[in-house]
Design brief:
The complex is a heterodimer of chains A (about 220) and B (about 600). By secondary structure, chain A is mainly alpha-helical. Chain A is built from 8 helices and 2 strands, in the order αααααββααα. The radius of gyration of chain B is 38 Å and the shape is elongated. The chains are: A mainly alpha (about 220), B alpha+beta (about 600). Chain A: Keywords: Membrane, Transmembrane, Transmembrane helix.
Chain lengths: ~220, ~600
């Protein structure tokens, strides 16, 4: 420190100042006097080199790690969004199918389907008592015109608003062959139920609000 | 000399350094102080403000429970729907790639709206009004299915996005609609949805976490999650298929006579479970506004009327119980009967007949009934009527109580002590009638009626509704005798049309005069309540038609009863017994075929 501080000192005076300005033997004498102070420098520089190299390497490593983590996070986020979309599509198609099943299970839909198949209301049935072979009651043939009434409105088909208008020719081809009368007529009158929901696309759905997207194309990592 | 100079230089240096060092220290102290001020003392509450800025609380909505029928079929459930919303400021012409050619094409807002109109089935004008403007938030369409909303978004109109909402869905529509009830914009309004809301709705949860400036969660910061507690499913005693069948039957009947309303109710008389409660018209819970207000709640609860001749059963049962009557006791019955200065007449001008009590019951003669009921003091009669549930509200867990008006004997007018014997002068609801008949046919034990079978937790744990033990009103012997009397009605009395081939069926018909708004009677209530199989009574079916149009002798509700009872017996696996009738003789002597 003192070696470096010397030039900072006021005007150079005395033998030390002179020896600095005089080249040749005088300099040798001066250098011989100051050499112990300067000898340390090369060593120091060598150590610094290693240190700087180390720091640079560390920085590079940190940068690489940060970069790798970021790339990984970004990639994972895309995977997450993709899987979320897949999950959503599956949940939705599952729900659409469940709704369709529930709709088809409703008594009105069952009744319509039955009439479409040519079924009519039952007449009186008789029973056979197995223990003594006795016939209980008198069986009657069902009246082919006795269709169930339909006072109770059929439930709204889920998403019926979006259903395509009824194409009569399609209904005819969809009708079971060989029915006459009530059944065939019914297939023409009734919309084939469950028209919607048959094609639940498994495609991804970009149902993200602008706030979720925050200007990007996929939402930031979150819980949902 | 050099050493002295060096020493001096060092002194100067150390002095300057001290100044610098002091300066640095002072600054450090300042900074430290400020740091302590900001972080440690925090007088402006910055730390708190920062945390609340970072803190995000997301509600975790609880899933609303389903309403199920007795077989576990879904009557009401929650589904995911989307509201289509637009940020009008962003709406502009846009580009998209043509599916067929793969080329970019310009699409104007008008074309986009027209395409949207096709997907949503709405008019272009209506959509233009909602899409074009300055508003940052405008709802274009509500409750679209996921499929519809996907189709709408595929058009690619800028600013259009879908917001998920939970919606109530009723897969069976108007079947049991008045029992299920419906939801309004702010919550449940009627029926089970409203009455059982607490069980159905569950408890919402919450998730709390901190986010950074970019909206991403800080992984090591606060994280709390209060899981949502999903609502319970409510399982009813109602059978969806039977309910539908009964609704069709009663609608057909009410339509036939152009009646004000009709009701058909089916009861498991051993357990008090209501299997069906059908009205001639029923609200569709998805569209409650489209149905007349009368039909938005179950008529079996909301409507009370004078029961008429079905009420005679109570008079006969109490006479048997009190020991003042035997079913085969003989009476001479004219079509008019004078008592206490009041004239009681029968509906038909029949000749004077020598009848048994069972015959009077089967033919539903008012004159004979008054002869029998007159033997019992008014107070006792009133007491029995109260014990079978008349004159007090009846609650089955639907939020609405069924009403019955029965004044105490002190308040009866000169005629009421006679009319109450044959079902006039007091009012009952369908459920009150069924409760009384249930007591008479179930060995004399009054079992409370119920509509809710069980609550089912989200994990499937069932909590059956605890039933109160029944209360004995009549002896088993009285009940047995009543069953044979009921059988007489169907065998040779006023309800022959109610017979179901292969089964022993009993019942009681009734035509009551209905009081009008201005006092006096201006209409009728036609009803039939019957039970089967009489070998071991299981089911009660009540059919009521209020204010039918036409002539009273043409009205017939027993065919509707037969239709529903046949359905009940066959769908609940009741084997036909083919057993012979056990009804009492209706007339004294050999000739059982007397003129009406």
């Amino acid at each position: 420190m003192s070696a470096e501080a010397q030039p900072l000192a006021p005007a150079p005076r005395g033998p030390l100042a002179r020896s600095r300005s005089i080249p040749g033997g005088a300099e040798d004498a001066a250098s011989a006097r100051t050499s112990p102070m300067l000898r340390a420098l090369p060593k120091l520089r060598q150590r610094q080199k290693g240190l700087i190299g180390g720091i640079i390497a560390l920085l590079a490593l940190a940068l690489t790690i940060v970069l790798a983590v970021n790339i990984h996070m970004a990639n994972s986020q895309y995977t997450v969004v993709e899987l979320q979309n897949q999950h959503l599509a599956l949940v939705q198609s599952n729900q659409a199918l469940t709704e369709e099943v529930q709709h088809l299970q409703s008594p009105q839909a069952l009744s319509n389907t039955a009439v479409g198949l040519g079924m009519v209301m039952p007449a009186e049935a008789a029973a056979l008592e197995l223990s003594d072979g006795e016939v209980i009651g008198t069986a009657e043939a069902a009246d082919s015109g006795d269709r169930p009434s339909s006072f109770v409105a059929a439930p709204a088909v889920p998403g019926a608003d979006a259903a395509a208008p009824l194409n009569v020719s399609e209904s005819v081809t969809g009708a079971p062959s060989g029915i006459l009368g009530a059944g065939a007529l019914n297939t023409l009158i009734e919309t084939p139920s469950g028209q919607n929901g048959q094609e639940t696309s498994a495609g991804t759905q970009d149902q993200f609000s602008p706030t979720e997207l925050n200007g990007g194309t996929i939402p930031a990592p979150s819980f949902d | 000399m050099a050493a002295a100079q060096k020493k001096r230089a060092e002194r100067v240096l150390s002095f300057r350094m001290r100044i610098g060092l002091t300066l640095i220290l002072v600054m450090l102290l300042l900074l430290g102080g400020r740091l302590f001020h900001v972080q440690g003392l925090d007088p402006a509450g910055n730390a708190e403000a920062a945390v609340s800025e970072r803190l995000r609380s997301v509600p975790l909505p609880a899933h609303r429970g389903d309403i199920l029928d007795s077989e576990g079929r879904v009557l009401a459930t929650s589904v995911n729907r989307y509201d289509l919303v637009v940020d009008q400021a962003v709406v502009e012409d846009f580009e998209r790639s043509d599916e067929a050619t793969g080329l970019r094409e310009e699409v104007t807002v008008r074309t986009g709206i027209a395409e949207l109109g096709e997907v949503l089935d709405r008019s272009t004008e209506e959509l233009t009004e909602r899409i074009v403007g300055e508003s940052r938030y405008s709802v274009v369409a509500r409750s679209l299915t996921p499929e519809q909303s996907e189709q709408a978004l595929e058009i690619g109109l800028p600013g259009l996005y879908a917001e998920p909402v939970s919606e109530r869905s009723y897969p069976s529509g108007a079947v049991a609609g008045s029992i299920i009830g419906f939801m309004g914009a702010d919550g449940p309004l009627e029926g089970i949805e409203a009455a059982q809301d607490e069980a159905l709705s569950g408890i919402d949860g919450e998730r709390i976490y901190e986010v950074g400036g970019d909206g991403v969660r800080i992984p090591v910061a606060t994280y709390e999650e209060l899981p949502a507690e999903d609502g319970q499913d409510v399982r009813l005693t109602v059978d969806q298929d039977l309910q539908w069948f009964a609704q069709e039957s009663i609608a057909k009947k009410a339509n036939q006579y152009n009646a004000a309303w009709g009701n058909a109710t089916v009861l498991d008389l051993t357990t008090g479970e209501i299997l069906a409660m059908a009205d001639s018209e029923t609200v569709d819970p998805a569209e409650p506004g489209e149905t007349d207000e009368l039909f938005r709640r179950p008529l079996a609860l909301t409507q009370d009327f004078e029961p008429g001749s079905t009420g005679k059963a109570i008079t006969f049962a109490m006479a048997l119980e009190e020991g003042t009557l035997n079913p085969t006791d003989g009476f001479t019955v004219d079509n008019r009967y004078e008592v206490d200065g009041q004239t009681i007449s029968d509906a038909t001008r029949h000749p004077t007949l020598d009848m048994t009590a069972a015959g009077i019951f089967a033919r539903s003669y008012n004159t004979g009934t008054v002869m029998i009921g007159g033997e019992i003091p008014e107070e006792t009669r009133y007491d029995y009527m109260r014990r079978v549930g008349l004159g007090e509200p009846l609650d089955i867990g639907l939020g609405t109580e069924a009403n019955s008006v029965l004044r105490p004997p002190e308040e009866w007018d000169a005629r009421q002590h006679l009319t109450t014997q044959f079902g006039q002068g007091y009012t009952t609801s369908v459920l009150h009638n069924l409760q009384a008949f249930q007591t008479m046919t179930n060995g004399g034990v009054d079992v409370p009626l119920r509509l809710i079978d069980a609550y089912v937790d989200a994990d499937g744990t069932e909590h059956p509704v605890q039933t109160e033990p029944g209360e004995r009103v009549f002896s088993e012997e009285t009940s047995e005798e009543m069953l044979r009397m009921f059988e007489g009605v169907v065998d040779y009395g006023t309800g022959t049309e109610a017979a179901v081939s292969g089964y022993r069926v009993g019942g009681k018909s009734g035509i009551a005069e209905a009081a009008g708004a201005g006092g006096g009677f201006d209409g009728h209530t036609q009803s039939f309540i019957g039970m089967a199989p009489l070998d071991d009574p299981q089911y009660l079916v009540s059919v009521t038609v209020h204010r039918p149009e036409g002539y009273w002798r043409d009205w017939e509700v027993t065919d509707t009863f037969r239709e529903i009872m046949s359905y009940v017996l066959s769908s609940y696996d009741q084997a036909p017994s083919g057993a012979k009738s056990d009804a009492y003789d209706g007339f004294e002597g050999e000739n059982q075929d007397q003129p009406w």
